[in-house]
Write the structure tokens for this entry.
Amino acid sequence: MIVLFQKLTYVLLWLTIFTMPIQKHFIIPGIGSLNKAVGIALAGLAVFTVLLQKEFKKLPLFFVLLILFIFVNIASYFWASVPADALDKSVLFLQLAFIAWAIYEFACTKERLDGLIKSFVLGCSVIAIQSIYQYLTGSIQMGVSTRFFIEGYNPNSLGIIWSLGLAMAMYLTVNGSKLYSLFIPAGAFAILLTGSRTAMVLLIFVAICSFWLLFKYRIRFRKIITLSLVIIGWFVVSQLPPGQLERFSTVSDELAGGTLNGRTVIWESGLETFSQRPVLGAGAGSYQEAAAVYGEEMSSHNSYLSILTENGLIGMGIFVIMLSILLAFSFKLEKRNPYRWLCLTLITTWMILSIASHAEAQKYTWIIFGIIITAHYINVKIKDPVKTKTKPLFKKRIVW
């Protein structure tokens, strides 16, 4: 009976990750997206399964710090510029933390974790193929803009998700799942169609990491794969709409002396806000309202600045330690372990993309965090099974 519920929980977890990239495709009246509906079912079944088995895996320090980080967000209700927003963002972090924990708790083998990675790539493939199809058939007119993306989605968010999916697809490809290599050209083309300069930078970074993977680990047929990727890359670029490359060419100018599409102006307002409340911050979810006093009432477009401004040095300190743990977990993986490349690529890609987006409150962030923690757990379990024993559910003391 317990095994059955564990499998059912895993299936719902798989569906939750699969529907994340396409969460705006299917809306259920009274509930919201299909992804939200599956997530609610996952939460209920996961809690029931843990209660049924009366034990859970001992939590690593990362999760203890995550609980503390959420507590800081909840406590900020008492000094937040907008108390209601503080509660809303705290609940959001709680939901996102649950996804990371569910991956750690229910995907504790390589086969299961690889299954979740495949679900992410499949979800990315669905929306990438739809985007390319609509572009080729002219289903959606771009108008005066050269940016092309599916209506209802943020092009930058789509580009980021596809970039992360490319890293996962590359991992699957070199580890025997060749079918997922089909997403590589589709994902790259879809990213470039969005015109997202942030995603374009991530695409280049993931490509560099992929070439390093092929030659560092002497992957079979690496020369053929590399040549194929170069040819595919040339073809993809040649199919871009007029003006798209011109948009990408402005990246160097923006980095050299521009405003990064207005982001630096927003950041200046955020830094001014932080200087007024450096220790506790302006309160969770209060960035826009607090920064508006100094000029710009907009989202931070920077995860680090968002946390620093809203949660102060205390919250930022906790989050930095959490990131350090993820980096340490990635480096500690065996050098021949294929997860090592994937985890290092995912966490460094995330650290780059977070400079230009508020990724800390996005589902993809906590999915990759969960993947890294679980990969480390699997690695430790193989090396020393004693360290990965489960803990009784009702034991009073916390162990990590």
User: Anything to note?
Assistant: The CA atoms of residues 25 and 33 lie 8 Å apart. The chain has two domains: 1-53, 54-392. The two ends are 28 Å apart (CA to CA). Residues 303-332 form the longest helix (30 residues).
